[in-house]
Design brief:
The complex is a heterodimer. By secondary structure, chain A is mainly α. Chain A is built from six helices and no strands. In chain A, helix 2 packs antiparallel against helix 3 (77-112). Chain B has 14 helices and twelve strands. Chain B has helices spanning 16-23, 27-40, 56-59, 66-75, 94-99, 116-128, 173-208, 215-247, 259-269, 271-277, 296-314, 348-351, 363-368, 375-385; strands at 80-83, 89-92, 132-140, 142-153, 164-171, 256-258, 280-284, 291-293, 319-324, 334-341, 389-394, 400-407. The two termini of chain B are 29 Å apart. Classes of the chains: A mainly alpha, B alpha+beta.
């Protein structure tokens, strides 16, 4: 009996370690995707696109082993929460990876277009998104509910950044219609980053759920979408 | 944090040299490996739930007191980790516990460092025994640049029945930071110094030629030149203090102070300036209160910069208040002090960029007021070092509020469990 329990503990440890490993890969994808945008590097962008496949494979492997553990060991309470949350976090991280890949894809056409100053703002927003992602992964690794709640509450800052960039990009495109192509790419990159921020809050919710067994609720502070009044000023 | 208490075990000091060659590891790593003989096999982690107890401990022959080997490893300033086949950390020295805050007995190493390059290298070394060296960066509050050497402790004898990985971590952050700082400093400083310098040179030329015999113009030009030179001096001072702060940014301060007391003192020192500028400066924080871990001078500079800004942009007749912030849900376990002003306020699109170096809402108005464009960047970097945050709330026409949030010190009064919202 003791042997079975310890093997089960080992299963749980290994599954959670895979989450940290997937998280590490997500951070790398996002950080390199941003770097490819900043330094206009299509080679690096293609590496990111290729590397995302590893993340997909990790998600599938994790899901498979979590299902196996649930089927074989029939866990309850805290153990079951860990497994359910692991599957949800894995699929959230996989989506974050997809969004990072999409940013890298857009870096390729941007690398041959004329450089624009707006890129700096976008990369800055990206760095903040990356910080939130790193923080939430740290919160997961150390089961830090306080940190998770803090990240969950701070996502509106990324929403605000997104709104500011939206405004900046639109103004830019209004001033010079030749920049509409570049502007549209940058806008999608910013939107992807904003989505990554939202996914990050979902991971924070899962950390809260693992530890407390409760949901964080849905009254998360969110930024108001940017209106278009500024165009008539 | 769990401290691991290895019990029993022996150090085979004589085997050190043999090990160094057998392992073909760099001297430090091999040395550490030798000293670990007495530790690894026998290190039973106090909190490991169901880990198998390595059998080797019983077999090891004690030729020297085990305290010697343990003392060596524990005094080693380099973080060392021993990692089992399943990826669990089976031993970590105190230096590792300091460097890796999430370190826990029996935890998987991927929770400590999840960088793919590192995870892959550890897996590969555990599989093939080759020594590897990886460089990578991690984020825990600050970005750190690390270099890890990964080797294998052979199975059998005192190392336990299974081969285990040994990881030595070196922090290269200082080196990287110094390189980055140099290039940033040159680029920013030359750009910002060019404008006043060009103006001074222009006036010198005018004074040398057509204004040579005009005493009125000379007086006027000299006054402008003095102002421009003063601006250059302030800029150089700010740049120097910024680079000093950045150099220590990843070192958490050790002393404890009352945040409100520092705020009150900084504000009091600015009362004469407030009087001169016709600003009402209301200090509504008291001494005592919650303590935070911090560098007193740097936190003083945070409030000096914030209050100075508030008075500068508020202008004559403005009211600047320094008050304690109400606990906020977004800042669990943090204590805050707010600097509020009745100034013109800041439009939403500028707020998130205020702490960028040399970012100005209005370049001309900032320069008129003698701003260097670095004040809030300095504040941000100091707060980064302290694990704190700057929260800015402002609306045009309604004034601004800058709140400094710092983590309560663990021993601080009334450390609450954080405001976790219900269901």
């Amino acid at each position: 009996m003791a042997h079975i329990v310890s093997a089960f503990d080992e299963d749980l440890v290994q599954i959670q370690a895979r989450i940290s490993e997937m998280g590490g890969l997500c951070e790398e994808l996002l950080s390199k995707a941003l770097e490819s945008v900043q330094s206009r590097d299509p080679v690096l962008a293609r590496q990111v696109i290729e590397r995302d496949k590893a993340l997909d494979a990790m998600e599938m492997a994790l899901e498979e082993s979590a299902v196996k553990v649930i089927a074989l060991r029939q866990p309850v309470a805290a153990d079951l929460r860990v497994l359910i949350a692991a599957m949800k976090i894995a699929s959230t991280l996989e989506r974050i990876g997809d969004l990072a890949k999409n940013i890298a894809k857009r870096a390729i056409p941007l690398s041959s277009a004329k450089p624009v100053r707006l890129t700096t703002s976008i990369v800055r927003m990206g760095r903040q998104t990356l910080t939130q992602l790193s923080d939430v992964l740290n919160a997961h690794a150390s089961r830090d509910v306080d940190l998770a709640v803090q990240i969950w509450n701070q996502d509106y800052e990324i929403d605000e950044l997104y709104n500011a960039i939206f405004r900046e990009v639109v103004t830019y495109m209004v001033e010079d219609s030749r920049l509409i192509g570049v502007g549209a790419q940058l806008m999608f990159i910013a939107k992807n980053l904003e989505r990554i921020g939202d996914h990050t809050t979902h991971v924070a919710e899962m950390v809260h759920y693992i530890v407390t067994g409760k949901n964080l609720g849905d009254d998360r502070p969110k930024g108001e979408p940017q209106g278009l009044e500024f165009l008539t000023d | 944090m769990a401290r691991w208490v290895p019990f029993g075990g022996a150090v085979l000091v004589g085997a050190l040299a043999a090990l160094a060659s057998a392992l073909a590891l760099p001297p430090l790593l091999a040395f550490a490996a030798g000293a670990l003989v007495g530790l690894v096999g026998a290190a039973v982690l106090a909190r490991e739930p169901a880990g198998p107890v390595p059998a080797a401990a019983q077999g090891a022959k004690a030729t020297m007191p085990s305290t010697f080997g343990r003392a060596l490893i524990e005094k080693l300033p380099t973080p060392l980790l021993v990692i089992s086949r399943t990826g669990r950390v089976s031993y970590a020295n105190p230096a590792a516990a300091d460097a890796l805050p999430r370190l826990e007995a029996g935890a998987h190493f991927a929770h400590l460092i999840r960088v793919p390059a590192f995870v892959e290298a550890v897996g590969a070394t555990l599989a093939d025994g080759e020594e590897r060296r990886v460089r990578f960066s991690t984020r825990q509050d600050q970005e750190r640049f690390l270099e890890a050497r990964i080797g294998l402790l052979p199975p059998g004898d005192a190392f336990g029945p299974e081969a285990q990985g040994i990881v030595q971590i070196e922090d290269r952050t200082d080196q990287r930071r110094a390189e980055q700082l140099r290039s940033d400093f040159i680029a920013n400083a030359s750009h910002e110094l060019r404008t006043p310098l060009a103006s001074i040179i222009g006036y010198i030329e005018t004074l040398q030629h057509h204004a040579r015999e005009d005493p009125d113009a000379r007086e006027r030009f000299l006054a402008i030149m003095a102002r421009e030179a003063g601006r250059m001096q302030r800029l150089v001072d700010d740049l120097m203090s910024l680079s000093r702060i950045e150099m220590t940014e990843h070192v958490r301060p050790a002393e404890e102070w009352s945040l409100t007391e520092i705020a009150a003192e900084s504000a009091a020192a600015l009362l004469p300036v407030a009087r001169r500028q016709g600003v009402t400066l209301a200090i509504e924080v008291a001494a005592g209160g919650v303590r935070v871990r911090g560098d007193r001078d740097q936190l003083g500079q945070v409030f000096t910069n914030l209050i100075d800004n508030a008075m500068k942009y508020g202008g004559a007749g403005a009211v600047v208040r320094v008050v304690e912030a109400a606990p906020a849900r977004a800042h669990p376990n943090r204590v805050g002090v707010t600097v509020e002003d009745s100034g013109p306020g800041i439009a939403r699109e500028h707020i998130h960029r205020l702490t960028e170096r040399f970012y100005r809402v209005s370049a001309s108005s900032s320069r008129d007021k003698g701003g260097t464009g670095l004040g809030l960047a300095i504040v941000k970097h100091i707060l980064n070092r302290h694990g704190g945050r700057l929260e800015i709330a402002s609306e045009p026409g309604k004034g601004s509020a800058f709140t400094v949030w710092l983590p309560r010190s663990e021993g601080g009064e009334g450390a609450a469990a954080g405001d976790v919202p219900e269901g």
